[in-house]
From TrEMBL:
Pfam family, one: AmiS_UreI
Keyword Glycoprotein: no
Protein location: Cell membrane
Organism placement in taxonomy: Bacteria, Pseudomonadati, Pseudomonadota, Betaproteobacteria, Nitrosomonadales
Topology in the lipid bilayer: Multi-pass membrane protein
Main location: membrane
Recorded superkingdom: Bacteria
UniProt similarity note: Belongs to the AmiS/UreI family.
Protein name: AmiS/UreI family transporter
Transmembrane intervals: 6-23, 35-52, 58-76, 88-108, 114-132, 144-166
Protein keywords: Cell membrane, Membrane, Transmembrane, Transmembrane helix, Transport
InterPro entries to which the protein is assigned, alphabetical: AmiSUreI_transpt, AmiSUreI_transpt_sf
Length: 179
């Protein structure tokens, strides 16, 4: 069976996004969500460093760290009870802008799956920016729905990568073969 380590952090990133959507609805404890964000942020950081330092895939490493830092920051803010999320919101805006170049690169390389992934990440992180810095509560329902959507999308992508099957292109080629 062929698989790719990329599936591991993606699976958990999908899960934390789903849990974060539930949190945005006020249905779970903030500190519990904070701890899960910290754990996923650590896992995503390890994964991103692995891709850069071991596989020399620096674009994947940088992309992974964009999101790992988000989960670490959300986790720290949740555990410490921070109410002002504006700095994190501005970081989310920078992430949203960065996803545009990743989506263009994926599209130019013929990987429509990752093009879609990066576009949806960018939309979601832009919504986070609007909520955290502008206090745009009118977008909360859309943000929650988009967080669920992207969470499910990323979890499915992670599962697909775990089993070595990515039918949409080869922008992040499957690099690890297990027997």
């Amino acid at each position: 069976m062929a698989g790719d380590f990329l599936g591991v952090p993606l699976l958990f990133i999908g899960f934390i996004l789903i849990v974060n959507a539930i949190w945005l609805q006020g249905k779970v404890d903030t500190k519990d969500v904070g701890i899960f964000n910290l754990l996923v942020g650590i896992l995503a950081t390890i994964g991103a460093l692995y891709f850069g330092l071991v596989q020399n895939n620096f674009p994947l490493s940088a992309g992974g760290l964009l999101f790992a830092m988000t989960y670490l920051w959300v986790g720290i803010n949740a555990v410490r009870g921070a109410e002002d999320q504006r700095a994190l919101g501005y970081y989310c805006l920078l992430v949203a802008f960065t996803t545009v170049s990743y989506a263009i690169k994926a599209f130019m390389d013929g990987d429509l799956g990752w093009t879609f992934e990066w576009i949806t990440y960018g939309i979601l992180w832009y919504l986070f920016y609007q909520i955290m810095t502008k206090g745009n509560t009118k977008l909360m329902g859309m943000t929650i729905a988009m967080t669920y959507f992207v969470g499910i999308e990323v979890a499915i992508t992670g599962w697909i990568y775990l089993y070595g099957y990515w039918p949409f292109g080869n922008w992040w080629p499957l690099q690890i073969t297990a027997s």
